Amino acid sequence: MIKIHQLTFGPFSENTYLLANEEDEAIIVDPGMYYPEENSKMFDYLNAQGLKPVRLILTHAHLDHVFGVNWISNTYGLVPEVHIDDQFIYNSAVATAMNYGLAMEKLVGPTIGLDDGSQFTFGNSVISIFQAPGHSPGSVCFYIKEENALIGGDVIFQGSIGRTDLPGGDFDTLINAIKTKVLVLPDETIIYSGHGPITTVGQERISNPFLT
Question: How far is CA 82 from the centre of its chain?
Answer without folding.
Answer: 10
